[in-house]
Protein: Isochorismatase domain-containing protein 2 isoform X1
Organism: Physeter macrocephalus
Amino acid sequence: MAAVRPGLGRIIPGSSILFLCDMQEKFRHASFFPQIVSVAARMLKVAQLLDVPVVLTEQYPQGLGPTVPELGAEGLQPRSKTCFSMVPVVQQELDARPQLRSVLLCGLETQACILHTALDLLDQGLQVHVVVDACTSRSQVDRLVALSRMRQSGAFLSTSEGLILQLVGDAAHPQFKEIQKIIKEPAPDSGLLGLFHGQNPLFR
């Protein structure tokens, strides 16, 4: 098989990992929180079907509470952190996977833990795929500028369905029927159309 060209942003299950960042009780007031958790839950289900490893973090859970149950992550052991980046508490997981090429990133807040995590991963030479319909902030201005900032730094901005279909790759895949059930209904609106409306200069 030919090597994957790193600049294209192609993803395959065997060299990918899903990061679920800080979807906790005290963040329920963030804009579009139910929608982004719903989309992240889709990503988690697909990752489990395709044997893509998953890591889950919680930011200062003593104060911000546990991961919300609707994410469906009960089988995962959350990594507690105070650093804005996920990377310090999951570095051993990264080091244990020399084949790792791509990180799929969901959660909040976009301008804080998502941005810091993306920059740390890019600094290690990994491809970062920000799941734009599974990331949010309290402020939509912060969300928009952080997405643009990550894109400027070399991260790929993708929708959940786009990434899911890249991972499965072929309608003949043995798990495609199950994945088709997950994406049969479109992902819920998480306010992205308003952010991208009118050829926003941040995304030119």
Summary: Strands lie at 16-21, 54-59, 79-81, 102-108, 127-136, 156-158.
